[in-house]
Amino acid sequence: MCDSTHRHITDAYTGESPHAAQPDNMVIIPHYPPMAPSCSEATMQYPSLNDYPGEYNFEILLDGTGSGFKAWMYSYELNKVFIDIGKVLPIQVKLLYKHDEPAPPPLFLRATPIYSQDDHRGRPVERCPLHVCRDNEINKGFEAVVKHIVRCTSAHCQYPMDERSGRHTCVTPLSPPQPGADTVTLMYSFVCKTSCLGGMDRRPVLLLLTLENQHGQILGRRSLSK
Ligand SMILES: [Zn+2]
Questions:
Q1: What would the pLDDT profile of 33-70 be if each residue is shown by its tens digit?
Q2: Could you read off the pLDDT of 160-170 as tens digits, one per residue?
Q3: What pTM was estimated for this model as a whole?
Q4: 205 close to 114: Cβ distance less than 8 angstroms
């Protein structure tokens, strides 16, 4: 998506009083990005982990060819991602858009870390005392969302917390693929390790990825183990 368009649209919203007198030639630009759903069934205490392609045939793909100096690795046998703290993991989202629809509705990808063992599954995955500290270098620019383990580099990503379950999630608006592409790539990072003391404490974690509409209705579901 064109950055300059984004900037233009964003700037239209920086005025302090939207109802103040406006010049005649002012163009009313629809709200963008669409408001992300804060909670969904994926943020409940016990969300379903079943793969569900849904009507958009939702798939996620990890392409290891661009990982360069191996900041991350994916094992197909284990369906498991190995990634260093703070490094970026590209996740490709593939959807089957319905061509008879004039425009797809606003769609979002929510990433929710979940403990994969039954004993711990109902507990939110929280950051360790060392890394959650606001002064930690890894939180520079993310002071408002220090409790979130999963981050997305998208400028429009939102970071809600479900107060019922204590789960911190990351919700990113999805745009349609660019011409000639059939996937959209979102960049994620994990700002604690599964070995963090007082945090995940070596408990295995999976990343639940849910395709959702603006109301938090789940339209597709996949997961990745870490
Ligand atoms: Zn940590």
A1: 678 899 999 999 999 999 999 999 999 998 755 555 56
A2: 999 999 999 99
A3: 0.82
A4: yes
Buried b (16+ CB within 10 A) or exposed e, 43-64: beeebeeeeeeeebebbbebee
Amino acid letter, 112? T
Q: How far is the CA of 87 from the centre of ligand 1 (A)?
A: 14
Q: What phi-psi label fits residue 133: left (phi over 0), alpha (psi between -120 and 50 degrees) or beta? A: beta
Using the mean position of ligand 1's atoms as its centre, give its distance from the Cα of residue 25 in Å.
51
What is the domain partition of the chain in residue ranges? 77-225
Cα(205) to ligand 1 centroid in Å equals 13
Residue 39 assigned to a binding site = no
Asked if residue 192 belongs to a known ligand binding site, the reply is: yes
CB-CB contact of 224 with 209 (8 Å)? yes
The residue behind tokens 């703070």 is 86
Residue range 77-225 forms a domain whose CATH class is mainly beta
Report the alpha-carbon distance of residue 209 to residue 110 in Å, rounded. Answer: 6
